[in-house]
Amino acid sequence: MGELIDFDVKDVAQLNNPLPKGPYGTVISNPPYGERLESEPALIALHSLLGRIMKSQFGGWNLSVFSASPELLSCLQLRADKQFKAKNGPLDCVQKNYHLAESEGGKPAMLAEDFANRLRKNLKKFEKWARQEGIECYRLYDADLPEYNVAIDRYADWVVVQEYAPPKTVDAHKARQRLFDIIAATIAVLDMAPNKLVLKTRERQKGKNQYQKMAEKGDFIEVQEYNARLWVNSPTTWIPVCSSTTVSPVACSAR
């Protein structure tokens, strides 16, 4: 097999079409998936990036992806032609097969384009101001667009995305879909490492859950506020008061 197949290990961000002039082929992938909150932004960014690369560089090819998370697969923003249920030990999995339309070239479209444009505008404004004032902690976005109902705070090279609880009149499926799009767009616009983004969703706690203690883990980051250098708790140790830090399964519809 080693004489027939070339094996290479690289970041998916460096994936490119080895046969740009043909013939067409098939890409087979088993991307990582996880259930821990800390990994969610990175997984969203990974699947979003994989989908954009496939559409921009592999037009005419076939793609087959195996995963235990249909929600993350939907963030590829591709519509499957066929899918098959399978098991991976105790995990319920799915194998989705896609045929990629002929590439039209050009830069792939950004998810949540309206939100991304507003975030770029805010970044240009506040980043310049913060640099002049010597401030590293500031709010970058605060539900400027009603349909993207989150607050985004910057703490040096960390970013915290906090979802405002949507009203009951808002479809929960659409709200969760937008949250995934927000995360992918934020990582792309800020050109940041996904593991530096902290996602917090808010919902009213009941019973004993409302009496949570603040995290006791002694992780701190250093930030600047004018002429002062301050130690603040690392965003990964925060537990919002009267809210729970959870992420629900999200489905991103194909576009």
TrEMBL record:
Entry's EC annotation: 2.1.1.173
Record's protein name: 2-phospho-D-glycerate hydrolyase
Keywords for this protein: Lyase, Methyltransferase, Transferase
Span of domain Ribosomal RNA large subunit methyltransferase K/L-like methyltransferase: 2-96
PROSITE patterns: N6_MTASE (PS00092)
Matches recorded under Pfam families: UPF0020
Enzyme class of the recorded protein, top EC level: transferase
Species of provenance: Klebsiella pneumoniae
